[in-house]
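Appendix B. Worked example

We walk through a single record from start to finish. Start with the input: the chain for Mycothiol-dependent maleylpyruvate isomerase, Intrasporangium calvum, length 240.
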Amino acid sequence: MAPEPALSRDLMARGTTLFWTALESVTDEQLAGPTALPGWTGKHVTAHVAANAEALAHLVTWARTGEETPMYSSPDQRNADIEVGATRPATELREWVRRSAADLGAGLASLDEQQWQREVRTAQGRLVPATEIPWMRTREVMVHAVDLGGSVGYADLPAEFHAALLDDIVAKRSSASDGPALHLAPTDNERRWDVTGAGDATTVRGPLSELAAYLSGRLATGLRADGAADGDLPDLSRWL
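Next comes the structure step. The output line below is what the pipeline stores for this chain.
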């Protein structure tokens, strides 16, 4: 579930800037070190974000030409691109991020109204209009800006992004119905979200940014679950 197109494009631009801010805040040595993502260094995160821009640019080509151009040539290509990319020198990785993001932005800017409506296929196999491409990119640059472990945290991401991310993940988790039922009650926002799942819904309260972190499988602080011993939060399966 993507936000309306104008907001998606604005958030993508802001997220690209935030990712670059995070990337500039870490040294080359820190980039080679581990992150909170199991098995991934900062170089893995950076290579993934750069390769993702190139993969989404394939969907832009599909939207522009009408010729099927998948994100990846095979299911294994995504992982292979990340592993190979993570061996690059840090200077090359930083330039790859900048160049691939600029190319994607230019490609999206070239689409006309009809091309924006053309359907393309995501890496998960969903057919979506090209208007969803900016949101697909927004999720990557925003969330991974935090994963780099530099100067950007979840609280630094825009509130509009947190709300849109919760809309997206709640819809996905509710559709799967393979986890706990949840009622998400931000302490700094009037909106509420309900996740369909097993058992009676557990109410989780806290800042909107931390609820977004929790639902996306990242470390969240300052949250409490009503009725849970020691405030333990229900365990969640992988989101994406």
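Two observations about the output. The first helix runs from residue 5 to 25. The two ends are 13 Å apart (CA to CA).
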